[in-house]
Amino acid sequence: MYTTSSLFLHTLAQVGITHAFVNWGSDHPAFLEDLERQRVDHGDTVVEIITCPNEMVAMSAAQAFAQVAGRPAAVIVHVDVGTQALAGAVHNACRGKVPVLVFAGASPFTVDGELKGSRNEWIHWNQDVPDQPAIVRQYMRFTAQINAPENVPQLVRRAIQIATSEPKGPVYLWARREVMEVEVDEALFNTPASLYRWPSIEPTGLSPSGTYHKP
C-alpha cells in the first residue's frame, strides 16, 4: 500500500535529498509505515532518516549538512509546536541562505472518523491554529500546503527550486494528517512531472544551460 507520505518521501529522493532530520509526532504514522515498508521491500529507505531529540537540533543539523554537502536537506516536524520549536535555527538558515526543506504535519480537519487519520486525541484541538505557516513565513523563501497527493511532485519540486535559487534559503511545506494518509496508486509515482527536476534559477539574464553557443 502506498500513501501520500510514500509519494512525498519518493519525491524527496527524486529531487536529490538524501538525508532527513526528523522529530516525529502524531501526524506522522503514514510516514513511519512507509519507511518500514521500504525497509522490508528494499532493505533500506530512499532517504536516510536521522531522528533528533529536538526540532532546533534537527534544523541546525540539516543546515550544517547542507553547508558541508553542498545540497539541500530535509526536516520533518510535528504540527504547530514542532514548527515553533525550530526556533532560532530557522533564523540561522534564512540569514545563512542555506537550502533546507521543512515539512510539518498539521492537526486533522475531520473530527469523527470521516476519513482515515481523523482526530482521535484531545490534543488535536489544542494544536489546530488558524495559520500554522505564519509561525515561520517571514524566514522562508516559500510556503505551501499539500492538499492532495496529486500535487506532491509539483510542490516539492517548486519548493526545492526556490530553496536552491539565489537568494537561497529554507522553505516550508505542511499538510493535514488525512491528506498524508490518502492511499495512492503506484502509477502516480510515474506522472510526467516526476520524470525530471526543476532546475535552480540562475542569476543571469540568459543562463548558460538555456543558450546555444555556435561552434
UniProtKB/TrEMBL annotation:
Keyword annotations from UniProtKB, A to Z: Signal
Family per record: Belongs to the TPP enzyme family.
Taxonomic path: Eukaryota, Fungi, Dikarya, Basidiomycota, Agaricomycotina
Matches recorded under InterPro entries: THDP-binding (IPR029061), Thiamin_PyroP_enz_TPP-bd_dom (IPR012001), TPP_enz (IPR045229)
Gene Ontology terms: cellular component: acetolactate synthase complex; mitochondrion
Thiamine pyrophosphate enzyme N-terminal TPP-binding domain span: 3-127
Keyword Ribonucleoprotein applies: no
Endpoints of the signal sequence: 1-20
Protein name: Thiamine pyrophosphate enzyme N-terminal TPP-binding domain-containing protein
A Gene Ontology molecular function term of the record: flavin adenine dinucleotide binding
One Gene Ontology biological process: isoleucine biosynthetic process
One matching Pfam family: TPP_enzyme_N
CDD domains assigned: TPP_PYR_POX_like (cd07035)
